[in-house]
Write a structure and sequence with these properties.
The complex is a heterodimer of chains A (244) and B (227).
Chain A (H helix, E strand, L loop, with lengths): L1 H11 L10 H33 L3 H13 L2 H12 L4 H24 L3 H9 L4 H34 L9 H7 L5 H28 L3 H6 L11 H10 L2
Helix pairs in contact in A: 1-9, 2-5, 2-7, 3-5, 4-5, 5-7, 6-7, 7-9, 8-9
Chain B lengths: L1 H5 L1 H35 L1 H16 L2 H12 L6 H25 L3 H9 L4 H31 L12 H9 L3 H29 L10 H9 L4
Helix pairs in contact in B: 2-3, 2-5, 2-7, 2-9, 3-5, 4-5, 5-7, 5-10, 6-7, 7-9, 7-10, 8-9
Classes of the chains: A mainly alpha (244), B mainly alpha (227).
Chain lengths: 244, 227
């Protein structure tokens, strides 16, 4: 447990805080890279995902492309693009965006896909146009799953930028790569703690957003997630009785 | 291609060790998450805690996790156990929610029928709940398999041999073919594993040729990414 003490001392050491390779600078780089990656990925994947969910076309292709992208090892993609395009933000950024697309895409199309058919029919029956159905019915109802997709993407992007610190771009992963050849375990542990803290904070923020964006009407109608299954009275009663 | 032919031996060894590192986490993850998923369903009070916990584990990025495990497990940093343990943690984190959803997707009418004709809880689990949640479990397992095979490469940064070594070495000596060989072989292993899982699913669930996965579980499986 000494190592943990040393790691926390390392983090708290004022000498490691400021400066161009200090914790604040590295954290700033990491957050900044993550944000631009996410914004670009959302701008690309969200419209496509919504279109797939709304029209029901292209789902198979999207699933296959997503599956293919998922099986690509990030470390390999990052190093290869680093060699191809040399030093600079462009190449790794493109790789990160590509790897962030599948979860956002999947969140968007499965979110729209999961909207009750009856609800959409009702919206059409009262005279909504296709765009209105998308904007006023499908999008709000799909929002929790859409945010869920962006949440997955965000975690993945934070993790991958850590790995991508093998390229000379900075980010919190730099602490790990710098400490590795020196076998400086406290610094490795400190860097790991910082990345994990960042990921957990980001995850928490998204979890909160996911709760907030659920439309009020949906919450009012839903008693609880698990009880939906046993809504029929006879099943509910006998399910309790039948449990050993 | 010439690079591959010249280094066939080394590449083969790395491939073998990559496969050897990937299999235990996939199996362990599956075997451990089904009971956890079952507990999450059976005792509703535990569901929130267990699912939140697995969500948090899932949020931990792989590289820092690998670095952290030696001090938690008391292992050496070069020990392959770190990678296996780390990947198992991921497999569980990914799989617990799927397992819970899969077991919850079994129709309560069917469960009641089984209980009514005298199945014990134990027998009902093995002969009714588990087979019926098979398709969803399989979908989850396929995601776990793909992400494990791809993430094992990251372990090479700690010095644990896998195809990831080709990426690091290839980058250091500016050898693109080496990296490409590594990527192609990693994807190939993932595809082979996926094919084997699909075949195993067909063999074990012959009644379910067309896999129909409930929307909610499918959405959950689709949105997960590799970190």
């Amino acid at each position: 447990m000494n190592q943990w003490g040393a790691a926390f001392l390392w983090i708290l050491d004022p000498a490691h805080l400021g400066g161009p390779s200090g914790i604040l600078a590295r954290l700033g780089e990491h957050v900044w890279y993550t944000l631009i990656t996410l914004v670009i990925a959302v701008l690309i994947a969200l419209p496509i995902g919504l279109a797939i969910g709304h029209t029901g076309k292209g789902r198979t292709v999207a699933v296959q492309v997503s599956g293919g992208l998922r099986s690509l090892p990030t470390l390999g993609v990052v190093t290869l693009l680093g060699l191809w395009f040399g030093i600079g933000l462009g190449a790794p950024l493109a790789a990160m965006v590509a790897l962030a697309l599948p979860p956002i895409l999947a969140g968007a199309y499965s979110g729209v896909d999961a909207v009750e058919r009856n609800t959409i029919d009702a919206a059409r029956a009262v005279g909504m146009t296709g765009w209105q159905v998308l904007g006023k019915v499908e999008l709000p109802l799909a929002l929790p799953l859409i945010i869920g997709g962006i949440r997955s993407a965000c975690l993945q992007v934070i993790a991958t930028w850590t790995v991508a610190a093998i390229l000379p771009l900075g980010g919190l992963g730099r602490f790990l790569y710098d400490a590795l050849p020196l076998r400086d375990y406290p610094q490795m542990l400190a860097g790991s703690i910082l990345v994990i803290a960042l990921a957990l904070v980001a995850d928490g923020v998204f979890a909160l957003v996911q709760k907030v964006v659920v439309p009020r009407g949906v919450l009012a109608g839903r008693v609880s997630e698990v009880r939906v299954k046993t809504a029929r009275p006879h099943a509910a009663v006998s399910a309790e009785a039948g449990r050993p | 291609m010439t690079w591959l032919l010249a280094n066939l031996d080394e590449v083969w060894q790395l491939t073998v060790s990559h496969v050897a590192l990937s299999i235990p986490p996939i199996i362990l993850g599956f075997v451990l998450s089904v009971p956890i998923g079952w507990i999450a369903n059976r005792y509703r009070a535990s569901r929130g805690t267990l699912l939140t916990l697995s969500g948090i584990l899932y949020a931990v990025p792989s590289l820092p996790l690998f670095f952290m495990l030696p001090s938690l497990l008391g292992t050496k940093i070069l020990d392959p156990i770190n990678v296996v343990a780390g990947m198992t943690i991921y497999a569980i984190a990914l799989m617990v929610r799927t397992a819970a959803d899969a077991l919850a997707s079994v129709s309560s009418d069917v469960q009641l029928n089984a209980t009514a004709v005298g199945f014990s809880a134990w027998r009902r689990f093995w002969t009714v709940d588990l087979p019926l949640s098979g398709p969803v479990l399989l979908a989850g397992l396929r995601v776990v398999s793909v992400s494990t095979v791809s993430l094992v490469t990251v372990g090479a940064l700690l010095g644990v041999p896998s195809l990831g070594f080709l990426f690091i070495n290839g980058y250091q000596v500016s050898n693109q073919p080496e990296i490409i060989v590594g990527i192609v072989l990693t994807v190939a292993i993932a595809l082979v594993f996926d094919g084997l899982l699909v075949l195993a699913g067909r063999a074990l669930m012959p009644w379910n040729r067309r896999v129909r996965v409930p929307r909610r579980a499918r959405a959950a499986a689709d949105t997960v990414g590799v970190s």
